[in-house]
Amino acid sequence: MDDATFDFDSLPLITQTRLTNFTGEFGGRVCLNTSKITPQQQKGPTCGMVAVSMCLEHFGVKVKAEEILEKAKTMGYSKQGEMYSAGYLAAITNEFLPNSSKVREMPNAKEFFQAICDGKHILVAYDCGPNYQPVYVKGHSAHWLLACGFIEKQEEIGFVKTRKSIADPSEIAILGYQGKSTALNVFPFNDVVASNAQLFEAGAKRDPNEYIIPDPFDLSDIRDCVVEISMNN
User: Fold this and answer.
1) Which of 40, 113, 130, 191 has the most crowded Cβ, counting Cβ within 10 A?
2) Is there a domain that residue 158 lies in?
């Protein structure tokens, strides 16, 4: 059920602009699980660590991305902050918030947004391009996104809170954070899914001797799957 008017004016101006660019002349129905998140910006290839740090803060565990990286190093999952395995990322998250994280197949629109409505967060990898939007370069720009909300177009003026979705993927965008910017951003759902589905190789810039990549020529450990985090997993 739609609850009340969404406090659109409380959002940063850049986020307001991105929302209205997506919804057009009307408004949207918004579900957002970010009340306890302090946006962070990554240092080096630590997008996964930063995403986990923000997610954990939402669930009541404050831990710096640097501490998460050190844990990943001791577990043999990362050297510089890179993260090429959803399983590794879930395992690291569970080190700080036990039994909170699991890997699941890429959900369809209804499943994805039901998880958000249920208060969960989702970590999903995609190729990051201009304005941090999804692009399609076979995994050469693989990057982690913390999905913590959604916006759904509606044919009415204004923005309202919601805890349900009709889940038409062409009418919905993910609201989330990624480590290259501290601003809450808008990512069309179909674009994120399509970008994730073509994550095939790490690319020449990722020397396997300098990074931990389960298979540099097959990124199946981050393709067609997500990490789901909640207090009830």
Assistant:
1) 113
2) yes
DSSP state letters, 127-187? EE-GGG-EE-STTTTEEEEEEEEEEEEESSSSEEE-S-----GGGEEEEEEETTEEEEEEE
Q: What is the CATH number of the domain that holds 47?
A: 3.90.70.10
Structural domain span for residue 188: 26-227
8-31 pLDDT, tens digit per residue, is 888 889 999 999 999 988 889 899
Cα(231)–Cα(85) distance, integer angstroms: 22
Amino acid at 73: K
From the list 93, 131, 76, the residue with the least C-alpha distance to 227 is 93
User: What per-residue confidence (pLDDT) applies to 215?
Assistant: 95
- Token code pair at residue 231: 């207090």
Flag whether pLDDT at 35 surpasses 90: no
Number of domains in the chain: 1
Between CA 189 and CA 89 the distance in angstroms is 22
pLDDT by residue (tens digit) across 79-123?
Answer: 999 999 999 999 999 999 999 999 999 999 889 989 999 999 999
Helices and strands: H and E segment counts in the chain: 6, 9
pLDDT for the residue 11: 87
**Residue whose pair of structure tokens reads 């409505």 in the numeric block:** 117
| Residue linked to tokens 């399509």 | 194
